[in-house]
Amino acid sequence: MNARTARRKRIIRVRTVEHQMAEANLARATGELASLVELSKRLETLRADLAMAKGEVAGRALNTIGELGMRLDMAKENLVAPLVNANSRREQAGVMAQSAMVKEESAVRLYERSRLSDVREQERRTDANRPHRRRAMSLRLLDGGAA
């Protein structure tokens, strides 16, 4: 293995770690987005379940139901910006993971080309080091005459 091949092998290790880190960041961003979406669904469910009772209801209970509904609506509105940010972070992490994967694959291809080049060069050198037998010039005769 020559220096170029060794350097490319080190680059592969670096690119592999970069790709793993990018995939971990993508997984973290996806988990964060899923958590926020789940929270939003739970708020919607709570708001939908907050129903007025039929019949006579005390004023204090109506006031409490109205205030709780208002707070749930405010929480849902305040969750919109974090959802948008989490979605954009996930998309950005996906792009970064894709880019890291392309760089890793490119480094692997360069390493393989370099390794094959090393093998060819080694074969050429071993062929060059093999003793060469010189034969005296001889005239080969074929069936009935000189060729």
Given helix and strand content, the structural type is mainly alpha
Measured as a percent range, the helix fraction is over 70%
The span between the termini is 47 Å
CATH architectural type? Orthogonal Bundle
Tell me the radius of gyration.
36 Å
CATH topology: Helix Hairpins
Give the DSSP E fraction (strand runs of 2 or more residues): under 5%
Sequence of secondary-structure elements: HHHEE
Keywords:
single chain, mainly alpha, two-stranded antiparallel ribbon, 3 helices
Gist of the model:
With 147 residues, this protein is mainly alpha-helical. It is 80% helix and 3% strand.
Explain this structure:
The chain is an all-alpha fold and about 150 residues long. The protein has one domain (about 5-130): Helix Hairpins (Orthogonal Bundle). Helix content is about 80%, strand content about 5%. The protein has helices at about 5-50, 60-80, 80-130, and strands at about 140, 145. A two-stranded antiparallel sheet has the order 1-2. A hairpin with a 2-residue loop joins strand 1 and strand 2. Helix 1 (about 5-50) packs antiparallel against helix 2 and helix 1 (about 5-50) packs antiparallel against helix 3 (about 80-130).
Summarize the topology.
Elements: H1 3-49, H2 59-78, H3 80-129, E1 141-142, E2 145-146
Antiparallel strand pairs: 1-2
